């Protein structure tokens, strides 16, 4: 078994997407799982390598990546050191980045291609990455199975509950700020984020995308999630009755935190992982 970290490919506005791949050199053409992180996330949040290793041990190739404008950099993939890039992030850029990762996975020139079954790709998305994954799964036939964790049902992160006065000030000044609860950084959000939503409303309609998904889908959500309340999961389930819904008594990140120094996952996260692995084993070709 092997892993290669911090591979760089080209993302939105030619900014780098940094990705990791976990694979088994002795077992060619395994189903591939791609993971898309959330709004304040990154591919290594909460020692995500431990999760990747579980999928690898279960017979999957696993790919995780940093969105090109998530605020990290290739040399500091776990720190928000590029707030200029962060301020220019938006949903359509993330959709483009995810497509670039899928293209890389399926590229005939991929040096790890022998470890990937290109016809058997699964997608996991967390929080905002979950909403992005719903949209991408609806529009990209290369995705054969979908799992969402604590996914948003509306492309309105983080401004969805802001009052009209704050939105007006945002438009006038061109930038708004919020404080990252973990790092205490003042994170800038340029008004282009809101404009991207207004200009691409049809494509960014997560509920509409959810209703059109006809591949296997598992919706996972914590009943105590205060970041993305449980009603988002019920909205997604209502839009697509074929989806399997799993709730666990936990928070937005299923009991994890960053940094994570333990060698095992918290019980809620492990419960979700066990269900996800069985789900992908059932629905992705071997």
UniProtKB/TrEMBL annotation:
Top-rank taxon, per record: Bacteria
Pfam families, sorted: Abhydrolase_1
EC number: 3.4.-.-
Keywords, ordered alphabetically: Hydrolase
Classification via Gene3D superfamilies: alpha/beta hydrolase
Domain AB hydrolase-1: 31-165
Family: Belongs to the AB hydrolase superfamily. FUS2 hydrolase family.
Protein name listed in UniProt: Alpha/beta hydrolase family protein
Species of provenance: Olivibacter oleidegradans
Taxonomic lineage from the root: Bacteria, Pseudomonadati, Bacteroidota, Sphingobacteriia, Sphingobacteriales
């Amino acid at each position: 078994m092997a892993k290669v970290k911090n591979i760089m490919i080209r993302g939105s506005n030619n900014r780098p997407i940094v990705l990791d791949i976990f694979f088994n050199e002795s077992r060619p053409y395994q189903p591939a799982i791609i993971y898309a992180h959330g709004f304040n996330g990154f591919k290594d949040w909460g020692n995500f390598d431990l999760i990747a290793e579980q999928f690898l041990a279960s017979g999957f190739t696993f790919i995780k990546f940093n969105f090109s404008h998530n605020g990290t950099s290739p040399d500091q993939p776990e720190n928000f050191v590029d707030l200029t890039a962060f301020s220019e992030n938006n949903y359509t850029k993330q959709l483009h980045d995810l497509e670039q990762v899928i293209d890389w996975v399926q590229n005939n020139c991929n040096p790890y291609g022998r470890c990937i079954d290109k016809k058997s790709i699964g997608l996991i998305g967390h929080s905002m990455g979950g909403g992005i994954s719903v949209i991408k799964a609806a529009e990209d036939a290369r995705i054969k199975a979908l799992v969402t964790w604590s996914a948003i049902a509306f492309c309105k992160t983080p401004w969805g509950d802001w009052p009209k006065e704050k939105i007006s000030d945002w438009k006038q000044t061109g930038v708004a700020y919020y404080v990252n609860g973990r790092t205490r950084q003042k994170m800038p959000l340029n008004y282009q984020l809101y404009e991207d939503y207004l200009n691409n409303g049809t494509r960014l309609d997560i509920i509409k995308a959810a209703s059109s998904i006809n591949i296997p889908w598992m919706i996972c959500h914590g009943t105590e999630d205060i970041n993305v309340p449980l009603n988002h999961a019920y909205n997604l389930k209502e839009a697509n009755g074929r989806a399997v819904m799993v709730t666990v008594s936990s928070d937005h990140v299923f009991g994890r935190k960053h940094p994570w120094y333990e060698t095992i996952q918290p019980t809620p996260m492990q419960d979700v992982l066990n269900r996800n692995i069985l789900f992908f084993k059932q629905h992705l070709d071997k």
